Amino acid sequence: MIALLARDLRLAIRAGGGFGLGLAFFLILATLVPLGVGPDATLLRPIGPGILWLGALLACLLSLDRIFALDLEDGSLDLLATAPIPLEGVATIKALTHWITTGLPLTVAAPALSLLLFLPTSALPWLVVSLLIGTPALSWLGTFGAALTVGLKRGSLLLSLLVLPLYIPTLVFGAEVVRRGGDGLSVATPLALLAAITLGCVAVLPFATAAALRINLR
Amino acid sequence: MSFWEYANPRRFMALSAKIQPWVWAAATVLCATGLIWGFFFTPEDFRMGNSVKIIYIHVPSAFIAINAWFMMLVASLIWLIRRHHVSALAARAAAPIGLIMTIVALLTGAIWGKPMWGTYWEWDPRLTSFLILGLFYLGYSALWSAIEEPDAAADLTSILCLVGTVFAVLSRYAAQFWSQGLHQGASLSLDAEENVADVFWQPLVISLAGFVALFLALVLMRTRTEIRRRRLSTLTARDRLA
């Protein structure tokens, strides 16, 4: 499993892997929003948490269809399915790779981008914490969606239709943590719920992902 | 004689052909009674006036919109556990009906909301979760039509239905989290305290039963269509080989 993780990470980082694409998209979104709604700080400050979380969501979505598509094309997915490690483990590793290459960079870059949206400094730690806790759920859900649509010709549009509704609870609680944190309120409840969603996703979704993969490889 | 005998498509077709006219008749009679009674023979509400009468479409369609999803969940589970094709096809048949009912509930709600709340739309938890439910129906139907191999499509949509159920419920509570909302509480709970008054209640129950019968009739009809389509494709495939 470690070897698989190392292989996927290498593939993602080298040329054509799409690493950093999500990050660039995140940057562009954070730049475009003030250009669209106007540079007014009183306007941007309340919508900042929502925009940053939406950006993370969409940036995550960009790289989802690559999770399994390339492996299916060159046949390595068939090899992985017959390999001694369980397919559930493969699904977990794929999701983890996706998180390391998109969720983690987004979390690191978010504080810098929040300056563009005039987010109060009191919200910054909560922004990082909520992204750190919330983005794994996005990757695991996305891997599940990618497994559902892996064999399809025009799967990527369908993939976003399937995955985005599943992202709703994460988005609501994640943005709520940042908003409350910025206002100096207690963040315990939404943060606990966000962590609950992530842990539930990490624990259960690999089984659904593996089931979907087996059906698609049949 | 077990219930599972009707998992055989031939038996199902025979049975459904027999009961379908009755279900249609029940749907017509109950809907007509409930709606005509509700529209013409109930008093006006003292606060809402005539606009209260949209409740006879709004509540039943919302009821069907939610329960169609649960019917799909049960049918998906039956497909995953016992591999009965009729069950998978029934789940497929119910999805567009549920989507239409969701849209009807949202539209009638908007028409009702304008004179009462002064707005067509409000990000109220109930309204939001219905919109999200509509998105889930859309994704489910889109996945069905995207996959060509019928068994794989049935499997994948069933898994999506299971995961989707969890997240639809989660979204409902997530939406409740950030606003308390304008929508009134349950109008149909068994707890009589918060129910609507009796004069409105009786026709409402009848139109509710009518909508349930209508849903059953539509699901039966669409499932039969799906089974016939499946048979037709087998026949044409055999023809092509011969």
UniProtKB/TrEMBL annotation, chain A:
Q: What keywords sit in the KW lines?
A: Cell inner membrane, Cell membrane, Cytochrome c-type biogenesis, Membrane, Transmembrane, Transmembrane helix, Transport
> What gene name is listed for this protein?
ccmB
Q: Which NCBIfam families match?
A: ccmB
Membrane-crossing residues?
A: 12-37, 43-64, 99-120, 126-150, 157-175, 187-213
Domain of life where this protein originates: Bacteria
Q: Pfam families under this entry?
A: CcmB
Signal peptide location: none
Q: Does the keyword Transmembrane apply?
A: yes
* Function in brief: Required for the export of heme to the periplasm for the biogenesis of c-type cytochromes.
Gene Ontology molecular function, alphabetical: heme transmembrane transporter activity
> What are the record's GO terms for cellular component?
plasma membrane
Topology versus the membrane: Multi-pass membrane protein
GO biological process entries? cytochrome c biosynthetic process; cytochrome complex assembly
Q: What name does UniProt use for this protein?
A: Heme exporter protein B
State the family named in the UniProt similarity comment for this chain: Belongs to the CcmB/CycW/HelB family.
By its UniProt entry, which InterPro entries does this protein fall under?
A: Cyt_c_biogenesis_CcmB, Cyt_c_CcmB_bac
Q: Where in the cell is it found?
A: Cell inner membrane
Automatic annotation (TrEMBL), chain B:
Q: Which UniProt keywords apply?
A: Cell inner membrane, Cell membrane, Cytochrome c-type biogenesis, Membrane, Transmembrane, Transmembrane helix, Transport
What Pfam family is a match for this entry?
Answer: Cytochrom_C_asm
Can you cite an annotated GO cellular component?
plasma membrane
Q: What is this protein called?
A: Heme exporter protein C
Cellular localisation: Cell inner membrane; Membrane
> Which residue intervals define the domain Cytochrome c assembly protein in the entry?
10-183
Highest rank taxon of the organism: Bacteria
Give the protein's biological function: Required for the export of heme to the periplasm for the biogenesis of c-type cytochromes.
Query: Its membrane topology, per UniProt?
Result: Multi-pass membrane protein
> In the record, what terms sit under GO molecular function?
heme binding; heme transmembrane transporter activity
The text of the family note is: Belongs to the CcmC/CycZ/HelC family.
* TM annotation in the entry: 21-42, 54-81, 93-112, 127-147, 159-179, 199-221
Organism (species): Jannaschia donghaensis
Record-level GO BP terms: cytochrome complex assembly
